[in-house]
Structures are given as structure tokens and as C-alpha cells.
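Ticket #4471: structure export looks truncated?
Reporter: QA, pipeline team
Priority: medium

Steps to reproduce: submit the single chain below to the structure queue and open the exported record.
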Amino acid sequence: MKYGYFDNDRREYVITDPRTPVKWVNYIGSLAFGGIVDQTGGSLLCAGDPGLNRITKYIPQLPASDFKGTTLYLRVRGKDGVELISPFFTPRLDAFDLYECRVGLSYQTIVSEIRGIRTEVTIFVPTGESVELRDIRVTNLRDDEVDVEVVPVVEYSHFDALKQFANADWVPQTMMSEALPIDADHLALLQYPFLRKDGAVNYLSASGAVSSFESDRKIFLGGNEYGTWREPLALASGHPLSCYEARRGDNIGALVLPLGTLQSGAEERVVAMLGQAERDEIRTTVTKYCNHHEVDAAFERLADFWSANLSVFECRTPDPDFDAMVNVHNPRQCYMTMNWSRYLSLYQLGIGTRGLGFRDSSQDVMGGLSGAPGEAKELLRKLLSIQKPDGSAMHQFYPATMEADCGDAEEEKDNGKLVYGDDHLWIVSAVCAYLKETGDRDFLDEKITYYDASLSIDGRPDGTVMEHLCKALAWTKENVGDHGIPLLGFADWNDCVNLPGKAESMFNACLYGLGLREMIELCEHLGHDDLAERYRGDHADMRQQVNEVAWDGDWYVRYFTEQGEALGSRNNAHGAIYTNAQSWAVMAGFAPEERASRALDSVREKLNTPFGIKLSGPGYNQYDPEIGGVTTYPPGAKENGGIFLHSNPWVMIAETMLGRGDRAFEYYSQINPAKRNDDIDLFEVEPYCYPQNILGDEHPQFGLGRNSWLSGTASWTYQAATKFILGIRPGHDGLVVDPCVPSSWDRFEVTRRIRGASYRIVVENPQGVSRGVASITVDGKALDGGVIPYCDGGEHLVEITMGEESHGVVEDVTELAAAG
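Actual output as written to the record:
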């Protein structure tokens, strides 16, 4: 069954049936103020810290039919008496004549028609502000006039979100409300937990006059709360609300906003505001947005931001689903993931235990930096500041305080395992990606402190960004196991394999190899020849070690236990092959051509499915404490033989490095959520963003997606599509052109804006090849080689003809491995 469609002209996905298989959400605002809005208008908002500054009470585990944090009612008086309408479908669940939820770029527009009343509500957070606006337009489609009252409702969370579930005595005593007059016609209903040290107050207000309000859930629902959100007795009565200013209890905010009499065909507009500010700022914000021209201008600024963000890379290919994701939905997800990391979603609730991850955000930067390089740079600074003086890194940090910890590794203090073996290495690729995009070489000389919780920030040692990168590589070089492979630590990228003792990780070896490749390229660009030569030697040493000890005959092993046993080996009954050891051996330049081909063929033979490539297989079928969390899942779920989507684009990239464009694109299409739009009852999650995982073929619900939105899949799939399939990627000296596309594509175009210039790149493929560049012209002049030098502004036409005679833009995998 279909639940909606892509409106590519408006850059929206349009949900036409609110009864989606699971909650489908969109992100509005930013981590500073914002959150998620679902397909029926419920919202989970926070400011700065989802755990310690939660605003709305949205409980994802409750049924989708329940009230969720915020909603809207209309009270309509006509010739048939008083009618109660819920324009967002929930919580009344009435049958609609029309329902559209337009999932836009940081906004949600819900349009509904029921019983002759049309409601259109656009929900968004103005850029840089701490208020959610709900721009409400009501149209009378009936033949007769009606009187309409608009009633926005919010249920507040305690700002310390967990406490509302853990202390049913203290929390209600601290929840209180207060009516704050704005002027003669307007008021703001405050939710004021007096314990807030920063003076911040949550408030609900509107651009229209308030005739009455309610702040106590018990009174609003009525009947000692045996009234329901579907039929709040305080509204059903038709009477004004109580105007009670609660001093304890379950706080809500409900405002009755009379629109007056609407003649047939007439429309009225009112804007509801849900925000957080100090008391003195509230009047300023409310007064500003009582002017609807200011609301329109704020929405235009939001549109301008996204137009600029998405214009840096636009493509036109023979595959419309590919174009929809690459041009709109994938970069939008990349930006949101760069902003939110894994901090707030329906799956990770950001309550007390989950900050921004060093590993996660380092990868997210690489997908989001082209559209927002300034924000990316600031995030890189934060990440570098939680790298430790020895070169390793803390696992996560809390952006409100910049305190950091080692995540689950904290539990392993007694065993000396306070380090994830991969965290610190990701920053090397992230910084290099930023430098290639921006050319900001001065960033390398910027001094940033190292993390030491025992010292004040002012007293911590510092180092240049370049020194941070060098220390990251040095830590891994110095911490290897008996096989000469880098130590696993508590875990590597695969958090769920936690081997005791001095276990070794093939993933860490390959991530180290890729980091060395990036640093070799950077040092050559900077003229640091001695350092480049040293890193070439380090790469060659690790390459030799990997191929001596980790090749298992048809693929590379994934781990070595402290006792020397290989995991991810043909000798294992479960977990015999892991995808990442194969793709990353190619990406690192470690795998000779024959082994690279064989390893990736093994992935296809043993792990590929119609819905994507499994992370490993066969799945473990019972808990094994020596292996860890991966064995707690049933076979086919998550890391235990599930289709962990994050690892799929790494296989795509590896396949393009072998020139196998048809296979790379097949893998891309397998996990493209847009291609699941007609099969949603199986897939269930949103078709406009990548989930984290899909249940694998060993699971009875094979094909079911979960954990959407905040996933490293977004960044890496965007990179795989733009940099490796379309093959347009920034280098230090120019744009590298190296497409590896389906052989059936005869033509495609890319517009790439970078460093102040715009390049329209037209690629013709008359011979039907997957890879190879026969000729390139820039503004009509032939280019010798496959790197387009950066131009100083302007618009430029690049014409490329693919063919068998390649310029050798990127060395083949054998040359990469030999060069180290």
C-alpha cells in the first residue's frame, strides 16, 4: 500500500494517509531549539539538551493514535450546533475528505478537509530562534457561515525528562503555569518550573486574541480525567475554558482563539507560538510574530537557507529515484544528522546516556559540510577538543556543557578498556574532507585543547589541528596486538562485538590505512615530503601485516581474540564473514586486485539480499558473553546478520574502486528508501530518509526497516552517490572527475558549486562503459588529466566523454595498494 508520494518540484514528500505503519517524522529547528514533528502534528521539542531541557511530553512508545505532545482542535458553531474537529487526525481519528502531510525542508505542512472545514497548518522554527510557529489557516468550504475557534494544545514535559517517570511526587509540585499579558489583546501562557537556574520559561501564545485558556490537564479532559484527548470535556461543552493558572499537577497549555464568523469561502489566519525564553524576551518574540508578515519572512529565510544548501550539488540522471534522494532528501538528512548526531529521535531519546558521538559526528561532518561548511568547522573544533593528549578520544560529549565520557566503555574501567579503538581515527578523514571542500589550510594551524577532565579548560594542553591528526595516527600505530593488527579496545565501529583482553580489529587496521592515505595526500599537497614518506612506510607496513595474517582464503577475517582465534573466518559456524573487513580492505588500499575482487565477490555470494547487504553471517543463535552484545539479538537483527545500512555504501565505494559501476549502483538501489514507496507495509519506516537497519533474511520479518533518520548511513550513502558513483569529488588541488556509473547510462549532468565557483558538468557515455574518462574540456578547452583546477569564481562548463581510454584519474586498487 502507498501512503504518499514524492513531490520533487516542491522538494517535499506528501503523506496522504495519516495511518502510516509507524510514526513518520520530520526535523524542525536545530539542537539549539527544535525537534521532531510526526505525520499527525505531534512534536517532541527540546532546547539544547533533549534530556535536561525537554519541552513537550511526547512518549514514542505510546500508540500512534494517542495524543503526542502537541495537537490542534477546532470548535465549530454552525446550524447543527457545536462540532469538535481535530485537523491532525489524532486524537479524534475522524474520517477525512482530504489529508496531506507535506514533509518539507525543516517544516511540516498539514492540510485537511473534514465536514466542510479546510485547515492548513505549517509548522517550523525560524532560523536562529527559540520558538516553534504553527501558521494556521482555516477556510469555510460550507454553503453556510460558521463561527470557528482554534484551540492549540501542548502537554509539557518536566524539563528533566526522566524525572517525570521517576518521581511522581516532586515533579508535579514543581510544575506550574501563569498567564502573562503581552498587550491588551494578547497573552502568553507560561509553564514555569521555578527550579530553572537560567530563568528560561516555556510559553504558549498566539497572534490572535485569547478568549480563554487552560493549564491543568485534569480540568481540560474533565470527569477526573475520564474524559479523553479524543473528547476533552472542557471543549465538548462549548463553554469557555477555566482560565485556571495551575500551581501543581500535569501542566498543559490550551488557548481558545476565536476567528469569528467565516462566511462561505472565507479564510482566517492565526499563528500559534510555542517557545522558550526569559520572561523579558517573550513579549518581544510574541509581538514580532503577531505580525504575519514577519512569519512569512521567517519562512522565506528558511527556504533561502535550504536553496543555498542544496544548490552545492545537483544531478540529473536517468534514475528519478536516485535524483530525488541525491538532490533533496539525502543531503537534508545529512544536515540534520550532522546537527543532531544520535541525540534525539524516536529511537535514541537523548535522556542522560547519549551525547554526540565522536565517531558518529566525525562521519556526519563528511556528508553535511558541503552545504554548511561553517557549521561543519565548528563541529570539528568540538570533536578535536575531546581528543585526549595521547591521541585517543573520548567516545561522546554533551554539547551544552562539553563534558565528555567513554560511553559503554566506562563499564570496563577495571579491565583498562576505556577506549573505542576507532573513535580517534575518524577525525583524520573528517578534517581532510573539510580541507578539500574549503581549501581552509589555516585551520591546520589553529590550536585546540586536548581533553583532560582533571584540568580546567584553561589549564589543558593544546596542539594544532595538524598535531591532533598526527597524534591520532600515532596512537593506533603504537597500540597493536600479537598479530601486528591494531587493538580493538572496548569496541570498534561495530559496538556490539566486545572481545575481552587484547583483541585485534581488522576494521581499525583499515580505518588507520585510510587515515594514512588521507594524510599522505595532505602532506604532499602541503609540501611536507618527509612526513608523507614516513606515512607511506607506515601504510606499507600495515598492508603487509594485514595480508600476511588476515586473509582467510576468500575473504579477510574481522577480529582476532586475545587467544589468537580469528572471528569472521570460514572456521566459524556463526559470524563466518563480515562485510566491513572486505570493503574496508579495498578502501584502505590494502587489498591487491585479485583479493579485492574475491573479497567483494564473497560479500555478494554470502551476504547480499534484495533489501541490502547484511553486516555479517550466519547469525549467532545464542548468547555468548565472550563475543558480546551482537549475540543478544536474534539472527537477522541489527548487527547479528541484519542489514546494517551504514556498511552498504562502503561496499558501493569499494566496487567503484574496482570499476564495477553496475554492481555499485545495484547496491545503491537496493537500499534507496524511495524505491520502497510502493512496498511500505513491509518496510514500514519513512521512504524519504535512510533507516539504520533492515531485518535480514534470517529473521521472519525480513525487509522491515527501523531506526530512521539519525544514522551514519546518510553521510556515507551521499558520499558514495556523489563522490564515487557520479564521481565528482573535491581534491586538494581541484575537482576529481572519475564517474563509475551503470553501463546503461548514456548521459548525466551534475552542477557542483565549490569555493565560490559553479561547474556544470555534462557527462556523455557513448560506449556504454561503467568507468573511464576519454576526454574532458573546461569552457571548451581540453584538459590533460582528470582533475579540474579550482576556478576563481564564475560559472564553468565541463564536458566529459567516458570511454575505455581513461586518464587514470584514480589509481586502480593494485596501484593504491602498492603505493601505500
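Status: closed, not a bug. The export was complete when the record was re-opened. Leaving a note from the reviewer for reference: The first helix runs from residue 163 to 166.
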